[in-house]
Amino acid sequence: MRMPRRALLISAACTSAVLAVGIPSPASAIDGPDTRRVQVVMVNFTDSSFKDPAKSKAALQKAYFGKADSLTSYYNEVSNGAATFKPAADGDEGVVGPIDLPIPGAGCDNDKIHSETQKALEQQGIGWDDFEHMSIVFPNDTAKCGYGGLGSVGGGNTWVPVSGDGGSADLTVLVHEFGHNFGYQHQMRYACTGIDLATCKDTQTTSHKTPMGGGTNVAGLSAPELIHAKWLSLKEAPKVTKSQTYRLRSLYGKGGGVRALDLPIGDDRLVVEMRSASGTLDKGLEGIHAYRVPQGHYDASSMVDITPKTDHWAGSDTPSGDALAAGKSLTDKAHKVEVRVLKSEGGEATVAVSLNGVPAPASARQDVAPQSEGAAPAASSDGKSDEDLAATGGDSGTTMSIAAGGVVFLALGGAFVIKSMRSRRRSASRHAR
Hints:
Layout: E1 9-11, E2 19-20, E3 34-44, H1 53-65, H2 71-78, E4 83-87, E5 95-100, H3 110-123, E6 133-139, E7 150-153, E8 157-162, H4 171-181, E9 188-192, E10 200-206, H5 223-228, E11 244-249, E12 260-265, E13 268-275, E14 287-293, E15 302-305, E16 329-332, E17 337-345, E18 348-354, E19 364-365, E20 408-410, E21 416-419, H6 428-431
Parallel strand pairs: 2-7, 3-4, 3-5, 3-6, 6-8, 9-15, 11-19
Antiparallel strand pairs: 1-21, 7-8, 9-10, 11-18, 12-13, 13-14, 14-15, 16-17, 17-18, 20-21
Signal peptide: 1-29
Region (Disordered): 362-393
């Protein structure tokens, strides 16, 4: 589904959340590792506090910066070392507090929580130049905020409610919210009644192919998301300009080769990827998947599902019943495009792409030289001072009072609440680097 660029989303089906400001695009692997400093801040409220702060602090240090099963290890793996996180201060274990805020947690005034935390950090000599990400962790027992996490889209802030009795942050929540910081929207699903894109319609369901689409941290990011962050080279995800047959390797598999294809369908793009279990990622996820990218916004892709009546969810956090099987095709007759899967097994696939109605040759290319135009650009901030807030993890039919103004569209039963909003923020140069 094409998501609004400035919207609030609350979902009963997912487990985390989002907000929006400008932040520089992630660096490509060619430029060297993009090391981002994270300041984790534990805060208490006047009506609630951490019951075992030492236990929570130790657990949070592992969740954010641990060598395995952490926010840092996840993004190290999905970016192939192009992006990583570290504690904001050298020699610091990355978590400060708990800091006592002079406000109650009840009501979940996120703007107030943010401003009071910022004020408290400045009193300790910690300013915006000291980090790229600030993650506020607070006890939710009394506050009862209706989301699993909150993060600024393209910004540097996250809000993470936890149990106050020593509880830590859920890894899927952290991966999801920091994904919003990298600029990702929620990844939705197109349901198709046939093999042609003209039969596809937006749905209120998520892709489950990425933590940004309702999947857990078991799933890696999808190919469009990797392209957005410039974590796939043009050799790994070539822009297809003529009919050709390709051999694809698993998106996170070892070795080189083509891992995804990026082809034109009018003003939009169609990205085709090969997924298979590798390392800690994509367990239970196997096969070819396709995504529609609206007008080059790789951060807002939607998965194309030509088998919508199949039960994709049973027994797996990363269902693959919607993969394009060998012998199956996906077409866009309006633009004379066809993608046919010739073979798909063992973490490899052969895919024939026909453009402009020209049949693809039978033999598969082993690799592809980079195109001359450079990597696909990430969607940039429009420079406005509005913030986007997308929250997930609330109860079905429950809304959140986060900011005044806007129009609310409500759909019950695990769907989304969408609310346009405007909110004060600091300039992008101060808010995030």
